[in-house]
Amino acid sequence: MSILDKTSTRAPKELEKETLKEETKSNACKIHELQKILYAQSKYSLLIILQGLDASGKDGLVSKVFSGINPLGCFVKAFKKPTEEELDHDFLWRVHQYVPSKGMIHIFNRSHYEDVLVPRVEKYASMDVIKKRYDHINHFEDLLKDSGTTILKFYLHISREEQLQRLEERKTDPKKFWKHNDGDWETSKKWDEYMAAYEDIFKHCSATPWTIVPADQNWYKEYLVAKTIKEAIEKMDLKFPEKKTLGLKF
User: What's 33's domain CATH number?
Assistant: First the structure.
């Protein structure tokens, strides 16, 4: 049985929704406080990678968990279809320029993993090319970690039934019309191919581990992601810089 088949897309029944929503607020506040020190110290950085199928809730997650973050210390990059210029370079070129500098939190809404998903499913690249890209991704992430960047990788695990319901809402709910894209429906038809591609990603690119996040219920998804981020930042050796004194030389 595959990793995703073994993982539920919903919260355990014994958990209380309102309790966890309050914990999410608390964790978000803690992230906000820790981010101040991270930014001031300017020694470490954090890269958060969000992957998931269409309608898995990546945008909403960013809005909910990072609503209180100081914009000076946080940056969100959504990776879409590569431009002609980006296609003229190696596949990591467009990604590397957006990794966080010291003191920063960067969030990738989709990421370099799209380059071993879409080209594989749509047959733009051979499996030999895809397998080489796995190695390049692992080396790339090792480079970032060696440079003081903590990497957190989240896969938002939505069920097929929930995805179809959310895609339908984009056609019927006026507040969600702007999210509708006919291409999402075509991609949804290739569900099994994308699941197989993700399973290989988990198999070959997990030196930096993935967190599989049940995503059918937003409140549980937000809770798990906020908790994981808070705990990761707490493990950093964070401290405000010492007071600088002006030394006069004669």
Answer: 3.40.50.300
Query: 7: Cβ–Cβ under 8 A, 6 or more apart, which residues?
Result: 157, 212, 214
What is the pLDDT at residue 173? 86
**Structural domain contains residue 239:** no
Handedness of CA 63, 64, 70, 76 (dihedral sign): negative
Domain hosting residue 189, numbered range: 3-8+15-234
Residues 76, 152, 226, 55, Cα dihedral to 10°: 60
Rg (CA), the chain: 20
| HEC readout, 32-72 | HHHHHHHHHHCCCEEEEEEEECCCCCHHHHHHHHCCCCCHH
Beta-carbon contacts of residue 155 (< 8 Å; ≥ 6 apart): 51, 52, 198, 202, 210, 211, 212, 213
Amino acid at 159: S
E strand intervals along the chain: 45-52, 74-78, 105-109, 149-157, 210-214
- The percentage of the chain sitting over the pLDDT mark of 90, rounded to a whole number, equals 87
Q: Is residue 246 part of a domain?
A: no
Q: Domain tally for the chain?
A: 1
- Is the residue at 199 inside a domain? yes
| Assigned domain for 242 exists | no
pLDDT single digits (tens) 155-214? 999 999 999 999 999 989 888 888 888 788 888 899 999 999 999 999 999 999 999 999
Q: How many helices (H) and strands (E) does the chain have?
A: 11, 5
- Average pLDDT on 83-108 reads 98
